[in-house]
Amino acid sequence: MNRFLLTSAFLVAAVPVAFAAQPTQQPAGWPELPPKAPVSNVKLVEPHLHVNRAGKGAPRIALTFDACMGKTDPRILSTLVDQHIPATIFVTARWLRTNPDSLAVFLAHPDLFELENHGQNHIPAVDVPTKVYGIAAAGSPQAVAQEVKGGADAMIAAGIQQPRWFRGATAKYTPAAIMQIRGMGYRVAGYSVNGDSGSLLPAKMVEKQYASAKDGDVIISHINQPTHAAGEGVVASILALKAKGVQFVRLQDIPEKGDDGTTN
Questions:
Q1: pTM listed for this prediction
Q2: NodB homology domain spans which residues (predicted)?
């Protein structure tokens, strides 16, 4: 009796294992199931960037703005112009196509604005298949090269000088992609203070982020979201920093140092 029960238990346990060992097959005529996406183990870096500190003089801070796509935030742009605040603007080919009036303002104030490369289609400059914040990356070295070159070509066609800096969408890269972009003649622009978290922060949080900036910091924010509350915080923060005597600089104005091999 015990032998019978043991044998039965073994068979019951073995059946699921046997079935599990068989590959899943679709009935004849059914479409093939898509392969499962591999688990991403891609190592990404988000480089820091600082400009040389002023030391005993007025604190030195570099404002950088990404113009990813969409429109232009007139609150930020008018403040920069009216207050004579220099800034570095990273533009994509997509943004250039739909913002000729804003581009004209930038070009009319070469003493204030340095225009640099944010890519062709706002695709993360990552050379392996993955997603960053839900955005599909370029996925290959060839696609990274096209994202960088396509952005530069659009800038030159729009009357902008050859860019010297590149900042990819999401500001994340693989170390290999950074080396590739450097090999194309660019410095890769990181940052040290995230001013608006993709223009998603409320105004008061933006003000706190900006207020944390110290001598030598590079702040990243966005200038393409005119309906977001973050823009209000950016404007208030710029005015507050100016009132404190901060010296605003562009990346082209002052020596800088980035990590992860981005500038040296």
A1: 0.85
A2: 59-249
